[in-house]
Amino acid sequence: MAYLCPSLLLTAALLLVLSTPCRSLMPAITKLSPLGETQGRASATFLSMSLLDGATDGGDPPNPRLLVSKGMKAFSAGDVSGSIELFDQAERAAPSLTPYLWQRGLSYYYADRFREGSEQFRTDVRVNPLDVEEIVWDIACLARVDPGAAFPPEGKMSLPPGKKDRRKIMSTVYSLFRGDGATEQALFAAGHDGSTSDEFYSLFYLGLYCECRDETEKAASYMRSATKTKYATGLGAGDYMTSCARIHCKLRGWS
């Protein structure tokens, strides 16, 4: 493989991050928001992994980008435990990736390893405190650690003072999970007053919310509906979170 200097790698990485509209095109390193916008952690992870690739390509050491990509594919195929092992291997190959392995946090949740999931999401938030989805998934993990406790759980994280998510869907999701005033009905309405991705994400997080509250029938209905949206079956079929919705239904027997 031809040698690329770090400055060229950084430039190429930035151009790819800014120009890529779908997370399926960068499966190993990115996670898009419900509005199709690349979140800040994606850029940081991509830059980090690009430079790491330059250090490991063509040699015996494992390629962390490839390992993360394989882990995501394993998860999407329903092999949750296998995905965790692959993410662990990526971390061992490149310890600096730890706060960017949000995919492993999702796998921990579906492996019922909720404390480890919470730890992963909290580690992620320390480097990206504005990431609403990490905060929401941490709340989900905490709720599943003690399913009999009141919801939302104590010790939940929050955005920095004065900060909020400008996306209507995620700001509503955040408020709902934190118990800050949003209602189930408000999130449902928000999802049906925007794009097809809004519809998917509203139903997906309503399903997760109801599961955390032990409302299994409602959770199943919402999550099944999320997998059948135009976004999940069309433009967003390669979105890692639509795969997450499908795996959620498969593991719960809701398919």
How does this structure look, described?
The chain has 255 residues and is mainly α. Helix content is 63%, strand content 0%. The radius of gyration is 18 Å and the shape is globular. The model is unreliable at 1-30, 32-48 and 50-57 (pLDDT under 50).
Please outline what is shown here:
This protein has 255 residues and is an all-alpha fold. It contains 13 helices and no strands.
Supply database-style keywords.
single chain; 255 residues; globular
Radius of gyration in whole Å, from Cα? Answer: 18 Å
Strand residue content? under 5%
* Average pLDDT level: 83
> In terms of per-residue confidence, which ranges show pLDDT below 50 for 5 or more consecutive residues?
1-30, 32-48, 50-57
The helix content, as a percent range, equals 55-70%
- From the helix content, strand content and strand pairing, which structural class follows? mainly alpha
- Biggest β-sheet, characterized? none
Report the total helices. 13
Overall 3D geometry? globular
Intertermini distance = 44 Å
What is the total tally of β strands?
A: 0
What is the assembly state of the chains in this entry?
Answer: single chain
Q: Secondary-structure element sequence? A: HHHHHHHHHHHHH
What order do the helices and strands come in, and which of them pair?
Layout: H1 6-19, H2 40-56, H3 64-76, H4 80-93, H5 102-110, H6 114-127, H7 132-145, H8 168-178, H9 184-191, H10 196-212, H11 216-227, H12 230-233, H13 240-252
